[in-house]
Amino acid sequence: MSFIKDFKEFAMKGNIIDMAVGVIIGGAFGKIVSSLVNDIIMPCMTVITGSDGFKNMKYVIVEGKEAVAEGQAAVEEVAVNYGMFIQNIVDFLIIALSIFVALRVIVKFKRKEKEAEAEAAAAPAEPTKEEVLLTEIRDILAKEAKK
Question: Could you tell me the pTM of the whole model?
Answer without folding.
Answer: 0.53
